[in-house]
Structure formats: C-alpha cells, structure tokens
C-alpha cells in the first residue's frame, strides 16, 4: 500500500471518494505553477482555458450587480431572467425549444454535468464513453457508481464516432452515452449526420444521452450544431452548456443544463443540497453575455482558427510528430509515439514530463484522456507563445 493509500485507509474515507482521482489537467497546472514559483519561464500549453479577457460589457454587468446589491440568494437553479436568457439564446442559435422548467443554471458546466450524471446513473449502470475522453467524465461516472464502457475511436479516422460503433457496445445495463463534440482533448467534431444517427439509436433503445456542448460555439467547420435541435429525441437527452469557453468566463463559474423537466428538477434538488444557486452577481453577468452583442463570440472563434492553423502547421513540421486537424475547441492532440524508446521515454507521460521539466513546456499527457500515444496541446494563447513553445519542442525532440 502506498503511504497516501495507507493514510486514506486509516481515515476510513468513503468508497466513493476513493473511486476517483484528481484531474490530470489540474496536476499539470500545479506542476507548471511550481516551476514558475522557482523562477522558470514556462510556456503553458497545458491550461484548458481561453487566453482572452472576459468582454467588457459582461464585466460591467457583474460590477453593476455588486453596486446594485444583487448579492442575496436567488432561486437554486438560477433566476427566471437567467434561465430564460439561456433557453432563448440556445433556441436562437441552434433551433431548440426548451422552456424555463427545462433549464437549470449551475456553478460551471462541470457542475451541471456532475449533477446530471448523479441523477441519471445508478450503481452498476454502464455508461458508454468514447475515447479519447475529457478526464472528468470517467471520474464523475465512477463517483455515481457507474461503470464506464470505453469506446475506442481511430486517429486515422479523425476520432470519428458513429452509431454503429455505439450499437456494438450496448448491453441490457447500458444507461447512458456521453457525447462531447467539439471534443476535449482531440478537437474532433461530430458531423450533424453522425450525431443525429447516434441520438436516434440511443433514443430508440431508451438509452440516455448526455451531450457535453461546452465547446459548441468553438466549432470551426462552419456548421454550428447542437443535439438540442433534435427535438423528436428530447425525452432522453440532456444538453450541458457553459459560458466558460464561449465568453472567456472560466473563473466566473456559470454553466447550464437543458433537458426533460423531471431531470432538471432532480438536478435542482441535488443542487439545493450542495451549492445552492450560482453566485448572484455572476448570474447578472451571464444574462449580459447571453442577451448582449454576440460579435465577441465570432471574433474569438476566428482568432482560434488562426491559432489552430498555426499550431498544427508547427507541430506537423516537427520530425516524427503527426497531428489530426482539430475542427473545434482549442486543443491539438499530436501523436508522439515516434519518440518512445529514445532517452528512456516509454510513454506519452514520459514525453510530457520531460518536456515540462527539461524544456519548460507544459502539455497534458494522453493517458489522462484514455490514449497512450498523444499529448494535449492547448493553443489558447498568443501566436508568439505558440512559436516559443514550438521552438523549445523542436530543440527538445532533436536532442532525444
Ligand atoms: C469537455 C468539457 N466539459 C466541461 C468542462 C467544464 O467547464 P466549466 O465547468 O468551466 O463550465 C470542460 C472544461 O475544461 C471541458 O473541457
């Protein structure tokens, strides 16, 4: 037993807390921070957040909320004003038609996702999880007592996910399928046609779909799409959204879920016994984000497309590295396996670890996302930082 496991055993902590692990992404952020505190100049490709500042009109609304003393408890699932702003924005952008009672605001998209899974997944239920997956899906399902059934996708097919692939994994215990398009970490975007087929296949078998659409506006294919538009399948579908990436608001903590009223009401019940409402002043800022001018969203999207092209070209120019073209989010997911076997490197974790400690470039190893040949490179930073990081990577790899 490791010293940490021994301490944990002595404390008699619960089974459910011992079933989960801290987020791999957070671990990289912590290690990069430590190096920075030691005075090292770290190029940060690890963080999963926009480098843009929150747009001014959103910040102003937050300040006005404080000045106007909008600082009391609100309804647990958010004010009526906010919930209406959420479903109306979604209806305008994606053609959905949710109502207020089918909408809940939470403390970030992760919180909405956590609540949805706790409400839908019971002990022993199977949850189909496409690989590569965002780190938290697995642990949130495990915390609920569910078993993840991993669905491998192929890099040479741009990590494509089809209904046929999902159907092969369905058993009588399958409760839920988790979708995440655009994907963190691969940047893969499901076509509306594939999405539609997957949703119909699940719907026809009475299986739930939780669609994590936190990056839905950072879709570079020119075809913005949410499963929320598939109203004929709505009774077994929960859409998770977030203002974090769309409006560069990661620290504000505002996410939401859209789904059947009974599920939303159960999620609110859980929320009422944990966080209660999302911060009141953040709710006002969120209303400004959702109802105000939307140019900031398309401007940031255009910028990410330029940065995406920049990093992918740079990575592909590194000897031995291959990289699919991410069609959304702000991550590239290069395959680094050509370097396994050199300088004692055996895995993507070794590549990312050495890259951080020896070249001061922070990335996240693919193991945390369920693949062993990749590292995740966040390109939500300036083109100058991308160049600095790429140059360090080039020298580092050449020396292996
Ligand atoms: C796929 C995915 N879902 C959800 C989230 C949660 O975002 P937030 O809780 O900031 O809304 C993230 C954040 O990185 C993410 O990558």
What report would you give on this structure?
- The structure is a single chain.
- 46% of the residues are buried.
- The strands form 3 sheets. Strands 2-8-7-6-5-3-4 form a 7-stranded mixed sheet, sandwiched between helices. It has a 3-stranded antiparallel sheet with strand order 9-12-11. It has a two-stranded parallel sheet with strand order 1-10.
- The protein has helices at residues 3-11, 15-18, 24-37, 56-67, 80-94, 109-120, 135-143, 163-167, 192-204, 261-272, 280-291, 295-316, 348-359, 383-398, and strands at residues 43-44, 103-106, 126-131, 147-152, 174-180, 208-212, 237-242, 255-258, 331-332, 361-362, 364-365, 375-378.
- The chain starts with a helix and ends with a helix.
- Helix 5 runs parallel beside helix 11 (280-291), helix 6 packs parallel to helix 7 and helix 12 runs parallel beside helix 14.
- With 400 residues, it is α/β, with parallel strands linked by helices.
- Bound molecules: pyridoxal-5'-phosphate.
- Residues 48, 108-110, 134, 180, 184, 212, 214, 242, 244, 250, 255 line the site of pyridoxal-5'-phosphate.
The best one-word shape is globular
Helix-strand category: alpha/beta
Distance between the termini: 35 Å
What binds here, in terms of ligands, is: pyridoxal-5'-phosphate
Average of per-residue pLDDT values: 95
Radius of gyration: 21 Å
Please estimate the helix content.
40-55%
Q: Provide the succession of SSEs.
A: HHHEHHEHEHEHEHEEEHHHEHEEEH
Count the strands? 12
Strand content: 5-15%
Spatially, the strands of the biggest sheet line up as: 2-8-7-6-5-3-4
Unreliable residue stretches: none
How many strands, what sense, and barrel or not for the largest sheet?
Answer: 7 strands, mixed
Please report the number of helical segments: 14
